[in-house]
Every structure is written in structure tokens, then in C-alpha cells.
Amino acid sequence: MTSAFPEPVAEAAMPRFADFEADARARGFDEVAERTWEADTQLGLHGHPFAVEALMVQGELALTIGDDTRVLRRGDRFALAPDQPHAERYGSEGATYWAARRHG
Length: 104
Fold this sequence. Notes:
single chain; mainly beta; Jelly Rolls; 6-stranded antiparallel sheet; 1 helix; 6 strands
């Protein structure tokens, strides 16, 4: 993915977790997990020591990267470079996404 907010996945094309994981591992990601967040959770500006490519599967996430805030829902994707500053705000029903991480 070259954009922080790649094109969404159409509902009819949503993969199963096993397929998401297999694709991510084939592309060199060394960790793939389902992440679930409680309603109204907020994480201020921070970064991670790994690259991330993620697919929203449930709920809502307002993700801020620089001056760009996007509200992400089922089928939306996001990508973060290692240590890329961002902030997260989860919706009133919480959220779940699948995250592929590449360390090192």
C-alpha cells in the first residue's frame, strides 16, 4: 500500500481472516492479529516501531495522520509506516480491525 488510506474493500470482496493473514504473510508481514477496541477509546498522538496494514471489519475508527482525519468503517483500510505519528478515536460501539505488522 502506498497511501495511508487505500481504496476500501467492497463488501462482496471482504476476505476471511485466514485469507487476510495468508496474503499479509506472503507479502512479508511477520505478525497478523485481530484487534478489538472498547467503545469511545481514545489514543493520543503516538507511533509504533513496526509498519501496519489494516482492514476494518466492524465499528468505527477516526484515524488522524498529520492534518488528515478519516472515519473508517467496515471495508476501509489504513497503512502506517514505522514510527508514523497518528491518533485514534473509536466509535460508540467500539471497533475491530485486522492488522498485519512488519517488524524490522
